């Protein structure tokens, strides 16, 4: 049988007890599987749970659907027809007293098919989780690689700027050293000879000028003697 809806707080032991105590007679539940649900317990159920003094570990665990196998197929068909749409009953103060049964007989369905389906879903879920983990790891590796590349580029830029600064400093130091080591070219000059006449006429006199000067002096001496 297939149970399309499992009421909140209905546990497998309680479900087995309700089915085996049905008015059909001697019913034996051989296997029972309830699929866990990720949905939370309803507000009314949670409020009643808070008011209770004793809470079991599985008090908040809920199930979405279930599969039930009976010892005889005839009992399963009759039980599904008898209970479907009827209140679950039991004690009046029970949590699921007013909940309705949702049962359907699955003709030709075997428990092996359910096991194979659950195994397939489990493998699909594991594959999906593995893909998500692989994608997350790839994103993490890509982010780490981007961070590493950014740090490397930053370090390279800093080294390049430092090298350029050092080159500029070296050029400035070389230019300063060249300016300090530069020697001005000097030319040697001969010292001036003679007095003021040398500045205007030069320091040397020609033989013609000497003869003229000597002749003039002799003439002046002779004239002076004649008129004494």
Automatic annotation (TrEMBL):
It comes from the Eukaryota. GO terms for molecular function: RNA binding. InterPro entries: ABT1/Esf2. This is RRM domain-containing protein. One of its GO terms (cellular component) is nucleolus. GO terms for biological process: endonucleolytic cleavage in 5'-ETS of tricistronic rRNA transcript (SSU-rRNA, 5.8S rRNA, LSU-rRNA); endonucleolytic cleavage in ITS1 to separate SSU-rRNA from 5.8S rRNA and LSU-rRNA from tricistronic rRNA transcript (SSU-rRNA, 5.8S rRNA, LSU-rRNA); endonucleolytic cleavage to generate mature 5'-end of SSU-rRNA from (SSU-rRNA, 5.8S rRNA, LSU-rRNA); small-subunit processome assembly.
């Amino acid at each position: 049988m297939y149970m399309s809806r499992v009421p909140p707080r209905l546990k497998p032991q309680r479900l087995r007890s309700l089915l085996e105590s049905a008015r059909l007679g001697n019913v034996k539940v051989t296997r029972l599987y309830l699929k866990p649900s990720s949905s939370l317990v309803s507000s009314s159920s949670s409020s009643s749970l808070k008011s209770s003094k004793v809470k079991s570990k599985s008090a908040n665990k809920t199930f979405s659907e279930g599969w039930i196998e009976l010892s005889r197929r005839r009992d399963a068909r009759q039980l599904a027809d008898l209970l479907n749409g009827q209140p679950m009953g039991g004690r009046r103060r029970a949590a699921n007293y007013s909940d309705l049964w949702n049962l359907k007989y699955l003709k030709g369905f075997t428990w092996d098919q359910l096991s194979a389906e659950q195994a397939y879903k489990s493998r699909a879920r594991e594959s999906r989780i593995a893909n998500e983990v692989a994608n997350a790891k790839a994103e993490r590796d890509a982010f780490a690689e981007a961070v590493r590349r950014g740090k490397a580029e930053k370090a390279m830029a800093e080294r390049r700027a430092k090298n350029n600064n050092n080159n500029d400093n070296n050029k400035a130091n070389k230019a300063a050293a060249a300016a300090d080591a530069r020697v001005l070219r000097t030319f040697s000059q001969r010292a001036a000879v003679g007095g003021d006449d040398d500045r205007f006429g030069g320091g040397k006199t020609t033989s013609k000028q000497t003869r003229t000067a000597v002749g003039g002096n002799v003439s002046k001496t002779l004239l002076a003697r004649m008129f004494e």
